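// run 5 | inverse folding | seed 20
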């Protein structure tokens, strides 16, 4: 078989594009007839396929299968489908293809069947009032669904209506709206409503309309003006912060804007600043208020000059206002006013201890109502200590009782009282004045030595000094610094003692020479720094003890004995009796016991002897150890006391410990317990108070107890001088 070249399509089978107008109403309408070159009468079958035939939209086109005529069966809309592309087929009666499929293109021709459409029904724009001509405001825009390549979609814009004046114009091609003339005034016309039109066919075809709303923006081209030139109002005296009245203004600019908001100033008539003026943000009126209390008696009327302007400056082209100033007349109405204490607080001074009836001060108030005849009376509103009396008419304050320090009603030396002043108006008004009375300190107390009894080592140097202190009930400047000195009446004291200042309240007492052990009473002269100074001679009870290596007291027996200066006679007897019990009842046993006690006193001091050089004390200071050769049993002590006839008979004397106590209780603990139970002495833990009993002593120094513990015989003849209670002991040992 020979190779077949490309088959040439017959010209009759090539179909050119077919044009048909949209909206064609003659239906069915013959569009074209197709033929095949291989046509045999009655031997060719024609068919078409594609959109509008067997594809959506269906049924628009059809073909006569025997003649090849193509028909339009429905109206076309170019805006929906502007062309259709179909395929045409030619077959024999047996269904064999006679020709290759050919293209059939149907073009829909546009008609001006669509009006222009604006993008929105109402267009909005803004322009400031007074804008120059040619100022563009906004652009209106429309579209046309017709073929843009034809005049069917060629649009032109115009303004159909805009009111009188013709203030705006529109670009026919672009739709831009601009100002056309000067003289836009928001206060005259604030809003312009324009009717604009769009037409196709270059303005000769179909048309449509829309609305353009143009708002004029306000500028400050109108100054505020007072509604009248004078305003009158009235204010009560003494009222502060109250509104007196309003001044009214008018402004043509946009209400609520800075161009409209007014600002007021008081220019004249109020040099003291008694009034203020503010703007009411809702009404734009000026509100005048009282800033300082008004006094009818001082000034009963004011004439104020008030100006007004806008918050925002005026435009240069704005005219000046003839009503930018106004006169405001304010009358001050007289009312009853409360009395006034011109001096509040009144401060006065009174000497401490001033007798009752002493004049303190005259504290009066004045009545501001000079045009009204009123009487003021006075009363004490606050007098916590009831120290004062007040004349209700004259206001004279006097003392009712003596004013003394210290008092719970004084605050830093000041006494506070309140005085009430009341007028007789109807209704009456009152005022309160504060009276501060300073109670001036008087130097009526001498300094007191604290404490009046001490213990120190009798050797110069380390341990041979004491820190002395003093207190004074007077307040500064009548107290410290204190002056300590040895009594000038006893110049010989300076040979053994010296006093040097330590600080304003303390001094140091030092031993100059080595002193024997025992109690000493030093007369000291203490003086304060008051005016005039107060001084007092006082006794310092000193117990000189045996000095150890470190300058501390070692002899606890001596410390306990010398401390007896601060306890009662009954307790001293118990301690003395306990010491005497160390002695044997026969001279044969005396010497051995002396040696034993002497050895104990030198080498092993008993712990149950209390050291009164220490402040306080407790159980830990009272721990004892049983000494060999000492009577330990309470029954032994009781028997011995009964034998020698030493039991005290005074109803306030201490009771001896009960024999029912356990054996082995230390002798000195028994004495301590008896002393603690003595109702005439303070508890052990309290501070002891010493009194000066004069110089000299009937009894010998207690140090004789220690000195008796020697190998020589002790002379007890002095026991007969101690009274009937010691007579039994005097008979035994004297």
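// decoded
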């Amino acid at each position: 078989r020979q190779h077949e070249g490309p088959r040439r399509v017959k010209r009759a089978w090539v179909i050119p594009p077919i044009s048909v107008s949209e909206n064609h109403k003659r239906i069915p309408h013959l569009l074209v007839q197709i033929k095949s070159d291989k046509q045999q009468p009655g031997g060719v079958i024609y068919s078409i396929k594609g959109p509008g035939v067997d594809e959506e939209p269906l049924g628009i086109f059809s073909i006569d299968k025997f003649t090849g005529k193509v028909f339009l069966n429905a109206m076309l809309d170019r805006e929906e489908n502007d062309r259709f592309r179909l395929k045409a087929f030619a077959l024999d009666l047996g269904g064999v293809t006679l020709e290759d499929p050919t293209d059939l293109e149907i073009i829909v021709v546009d008609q001006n069947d669509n009006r222009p459409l604006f993008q929105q029904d109402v267009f909005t724009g803004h322009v400031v009032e007074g804008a120059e001509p040619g100022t563009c405001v906004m652009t209106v825009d429309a579209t046309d669904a017709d073929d843009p390549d034809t005049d069917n979609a060629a649009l032109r814009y115009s303004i159909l209506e805009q009111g009188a004046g013709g203030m705006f114009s529109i670009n026919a091609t672009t739709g831009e709206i601009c100002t056309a003339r000067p003289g836009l005034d928001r206060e005259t016309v604030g809003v312009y409503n324009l009717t604009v039109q769009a037409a196709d066919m270059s303005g000769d075809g179909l048309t449509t309309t829309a609305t353009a709303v143009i708002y004029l923006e306000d500028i400050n081209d109108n100054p505020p003006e007072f509604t009248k030139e004078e305003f009158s109002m009235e204010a009560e005296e003494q009222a502060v912060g109250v509104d007196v009245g309003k001044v009214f203004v008018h402004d043509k600019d946009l209400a609520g804007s800075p161009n409209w908001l007014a600002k007021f100033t008081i220019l004249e008539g109020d040099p003291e600043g008694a009034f203020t003026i503010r703007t009411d943000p809702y009404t734009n009126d000026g509100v005048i208020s009282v800033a300082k209390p008004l006094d009818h008696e001082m000034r009963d009327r004011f004439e104020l000059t008030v100006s007004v302007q806008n918050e925002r400056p005026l435009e240069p082209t704005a005219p000046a206002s003839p009503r930018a100033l106004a006169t405001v007349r304010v009358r001050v109405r007289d009312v009853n006013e409360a009395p006034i204490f011109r001096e509040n607080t009144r401060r006065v001074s009174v000497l401490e201890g001033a007798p009752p009836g002493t004049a303190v001060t005259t504290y009066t108030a004045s009545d501001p109502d000079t045009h009204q005849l009123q009487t003021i009376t006075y009363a004490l509103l606050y007098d916590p200590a009831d120290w004062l009396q007040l004349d209700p008419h004259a206001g004279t304050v006097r003392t009712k009782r003596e004013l003394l320090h210290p008092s719970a009603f004084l605050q830093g030396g000041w006494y506070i009282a309140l005085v009430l002043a009341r007028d007789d108006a109807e209704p009456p008004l009152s005022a309160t004045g504060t009276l501060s009375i300073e109670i001036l300190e008087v130097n009526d107390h001498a300094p007191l030595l604290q404490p009046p009894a001490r213990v120190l080592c009798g050797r110069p140097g380390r341990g041979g000094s004491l820190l002395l202190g003093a207190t004074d009930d007077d307040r500064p400047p009548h107290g410290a610094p204190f002056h300590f000195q040895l009594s000038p009446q006893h110049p010989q004291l300076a040979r053994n003692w010296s006093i040097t200042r330590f600080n304003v309240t303390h001094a140091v007492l030092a031993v100059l020479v080595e002193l024997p052990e025992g109690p000493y009473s030093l007369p000291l002269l203490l003086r304060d720094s008051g005016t005039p100074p107060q001084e007092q001679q006082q006794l310092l009870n000193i117990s000189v003890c045996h000095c150890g290596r470190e300058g501390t007291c070692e002899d606890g027996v001596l410390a306990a004995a010398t401390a007896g200066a601060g306890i009662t006679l009954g307790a001293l007897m118990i301690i003395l009796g306990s010491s005497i019990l160390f002695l044997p009842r026969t001279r044969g046993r005396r010497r051995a016991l002396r040696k034993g006690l002497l050895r104990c006193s030198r080498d092993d001091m008993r712990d149950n002897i209390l050291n009164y050089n220490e402040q306080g004390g407790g159980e830990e200071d009272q721990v004892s150890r049983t000494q060999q050769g000492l009577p330990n049993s309470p029954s032994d002590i009781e028997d011995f006391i009964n034998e020698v006839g030493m039991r005290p008979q005074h109803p306030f004397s201490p009771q001896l410990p009960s024999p029912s106590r356990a054996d082995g209780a230390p002798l000195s603990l028994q004495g301590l317990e008896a002393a603690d139970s003595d109702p005439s002495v303070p508890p052990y833990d309290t501070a002891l108070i010493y009194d000066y009993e004069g110089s000299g002593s009937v009894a010998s120094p207690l140090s004789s107890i220690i000195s008796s513990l020697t190998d020589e015989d002790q002379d007890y003849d002095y026991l007969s001088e101690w009274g009937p209670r010691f007579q039994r002991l005097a008979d035994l040992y004297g």
